[in-house]
Specification:
The protein has six helices and 13 strands. By secondary structure, the protein is an alpha/beta fold. The strands form two sheets. Strands 1, 2, 3, 4, 5, 6 and 13 form a seven-stranded mixed sheet that branches. It has a six-stranded mixed sheet with strand order 7-8-9-10-11-12, with helices on one face. The relative contact order is 0.16.
């Protein structure tokens, strides 16, 4: 799978100035720099066409486009990302958890999308830090998990990304302001950098292993009997 991770520049700026860089990629991922603040009220009224632009670019490139944004739902603000595939908006994923005091509140549940490039899970910002996230993405059979982050502060996001890739057995990509990286299922960073557009290839692979656990005492099995 060919990826292009755009960590600097808006979607429209990159579209107009670096279209040749985006061409030929299976998945193009923008951080929160991609769209900025999107008002659902203005989108529905036709005053803005942010989501339409994402869909239009995905159609022109014949690829999957994932773009971070902040959404304003009639005064309720959330961290989000929109995903489009070959001209069609597949959905918008919101950040599930609201961390500390913030004007940005929690939104909908986790989502894994069936796309032309494969099954892609989308994780928003600090949702990466919650242990259920990797498990949910893994049992949902995500082949690639994309994490859209704000500005990084320290190395914790990369560390958790690598651990989640290893535990969940899935490749993961992170895009933040001025930084992007990709981790394989062994938790190894296969590509990283601060370039505006980071292009890389991701090998989609699964690592299935037989695990046995020794248990003592009474336990309830799947048949409901002791």
């Amino acid at each position: 799978m060919d990826l292009c991770l755009v960590s600097n520049g808006t979607l429209n700026e990159t579209w107009q100035e670096k279209l040749d860089v985006l061409s030929g990629q299976d998945v193009v991922i923008f951080g929160f720099n991609g769209l900025g603040l999107v008002s659902y009220k203005k989108e529905l009224a036709g005053e803005t066409e942010y989501f339409h632009d994402v869909a239009k670019l995905s159609r022109q490139l014949s690829s999957v486009i994932i773009c971070g944004c902040d959404t304003d739902t009639y005064g309720v603000f959330r961290h989000s990302a929109v995903i489009a595939d070959k001209g069609k908006v597949l959905g918008v994923t919101d950040m599930v958890h609201s961390v500390d005091d913030s004007e940005f509140v929690s939104g909908g549940s986790y989502k894994v999308y069936q796309t032309s490039a494969g099954k892609i899970g989308v994780v928003i910002s600090e949702d990466l830090y919650f242990f259920d996230t990797a498990k949910i993405m893994s049992v949902s059979d995500a082949e690639l998990v994309v994490c859209i982050f704000k500005k990084l502060d320290g190395y914790m996001p990369q560390t958790v990304l690598r651990a989640s890739s290893f535990i969940g057995g899935m490749a993961m990509a992170l895009v933040a302001k001025n930084y992007a990286c990709v981790s394989d299922i062994r938790g190894k960073i296969t590509a990283s950098g601060s370039a505006d557009c980071l292009k890389t290839k991701v090998k989609i692979e699964k690592d299935y292993r037989l695990v046995t656990t020794k248990r003592r005492g009474l336990f309830k099995d799947d048949n409901g009997d002791y």
